[in-house]
Specification:
Blueprint (H helix, E strand, L loop, with lengths): L4 E6 L5 E9 L2 E7 L4 H25 L4 H6 L11
Antiparallel strand pairs: 1-2, 2-3
Length: 83
C-alpha cells in the first residue's frame, strides 16, 4: 500500500514519463518512476485507496450517533453523591 498519486506526462516528442507524488515530511515530493515499475506502484496506490474506503465504511458503520445512551450509563462522581 502506498500513499500518493501517480501522474503521466507526455513530452512533445511523444515520450511518456511517470511521476509519483507524495507528501513527505510536510513537503510534496515528486519522484520519477521507471516504466517497469509503474504497474506495481499503480496497484499499491489503488490498494491504499481501497483500504481507506473500507476503513471509512467500517467507521461509519460502528459509530453511534446516540450520545445520550453513553452518557446515561455514566456513574455519578463521588462528590455528587449524598452521604
Amino acid at each position: 500500500m502506498k500513499r500518493g498519486k501517480l501522474t503521466e506526462q507526455r513530452r512533445p516528442s511523444g515520450k511518456v514519463y511517470h511521476h509519483y507524488q507524495v507528501w513527505e515530511k510536510g513537503r510534496n515530493r515528486t519522484i520519477y518512476v521507471p516504466s517497469d515499475q509503474v504497474e506495481g506502484l499503480r496497484r499499491a496506490i489503488e490498494e491504499r485507496q481501497r483500504f481507506e474506503a473500507l476503513a471509512e465504511s467500517f467507521i461509519d458503520a460502528s459509530v453511534t450517533t446516540d450520545v445520550g445512551v453513553a452518557e446515561s450509563k455514566k456513574k455519578p462522581s463521588r462528590r455528587s453523591r449524598k452521604s
